Amino acid sequence: MSLRDALHRVRAADEELAKGRELPLSARGLEAVVAGGFLGLDRHDWVLPGLREGVGAVLRGCPVHHLARLGAGARSYQIAPVSASPANRLLHACGLAMAGEQVLVFLGQGSASYGAFHEALNIAALHRLDIIFLVSCWDLEHPESPLARQVAGSLSAKALSYGVRGRTVDGGLVTEVLSAVTDARAQGGPHLIEARLSRGDDPLARAYDELTETEPHEANAPVS
């Protein structure tokens, strides 16, 4: 599967579910983060998505119609039940990782306002858990950004203070997200990836432009 195909599948599935109003929140604008997150993992790694990111299960072969029932999870695809609570996702992710699983948990910037966010980073660092926190952060430099009123400093810097490797990427570029997740998994241990996004941009269009500028053999390379 090429990166371009993966992006298209995520948006197509999101739009199909939106027509039937089966998806509580749309993943539009997060296609690069979702695709890069799922494709950077091994097929047997666990994913804990929020209400938006569960659509990425199509990249593991999950039928679109099943995505409307992800509240029950999709164990055969290693997708944990979708939870609207960042606190639950964070602590459940730590539990899975403590059981010896490789885990990726999707989060939004609002998760930083939960005490569980800091608890999870500390637990992950203390036990050197194989867990990747992939956080979508919108308009970090905007004066009205919720994050600016919640947290002093960036989330990646906050992670480093706990002993968790932190990295910031452009959330509109699928190759950056994919590279960060792939590297984090290869290194092992806990990682936080801060994917920055700008409102008004169309990450899918940006990602397409990025892949068009890439060498042909790279843009069309299959992704395992």
Characterize the main sheet. Answer: 5 strands, parallel
Helix residue percentage: 40-55%
Following the backbone from N to C, one meets helices and strands in this order, namely HHEHEHEHHEHEHH
| Beta-strand percent range | 5-15%
Brief rundown of the structure:
The protein has helices at 3-19, 31-39, 86-98, 115-126, 146-150, 155-162, 174-187, 203-213, 216-219, and strands at residues 46-48, 103-108, 131-138, 165-170, 191-197. It is of the alpha/beta class. Helix 3 (86-98) links the parallel strand 1 and strand 2.
Structure notes:
The structure is a single chain. The protein is of the alpha/beta class. The protein contains nine helices and five strands, in the order ααβαβαβααβαβαα. The chain has helices at residues 3-19, 31-39, 86-98, 115-126, 146-150, 155-162, 174-187, 203-213, 216-219, and strands spanning 46-48, 103-108, 131-138, 165-170, 191-197. Strands 1-2-3-5-4 form a five-stranded parallel sheet, with helices on both faces. The radius of gyration is 16 Å and the shape is globular. The termini are close together.
Itemize the secondary structure elements and their pairings.
Blueprint: H1 3-19, H2 31-39, E1 46-48, H3 86-98, E2 103-108, H4 115-126, E3 131-138, H5 146-150, H6 155-162, E4 165-170, H7 174-187, E5 191-197, H8 203-213, H9 216-219
Parallel strand pairs: 1-2, 2-3, 3-5, 4-5
